[in-house]
Amino acid sequence: xxxxxxxLTLSAFLFSQQAEVTNIQAAQRTDGSQIVDITYxxxxxxxxxxxxxxxxxxxxxxxxxxAISYATxxxxxxxxxxxxxxxxxxxxxxxxxxxxxxxxxxxxxESDAIVxxxxxxx
Length: 122
Prior knowledge:
By secondary structure, this protein is mainly β. It is built from two helices and nine strands.
């Protein structure tokens, strides 16, 4: 029994994957709407097809990050790999009267696989 638990635990670590997110770009619209358009590429993975995408923002050069709210687009669950992913963030709804010239974004892509081990094979 302990061997099965060890194998399942090891499999969970081996098959827990973070995809590679590249080419992150963000631009605030100049029409006064306080909307930020964020784009990124999510590189394909040989094992995982769907990802959960989360995004955070830092106003202090990466010292601390806060989760982004009031956003739509390619974030959350069931996001497939590919280029040209986009997120529309309603910055003004989340942060009012905020200014920084040290803004950084962190996009995380995670995926899991469930491995079933037949007890007869152990």
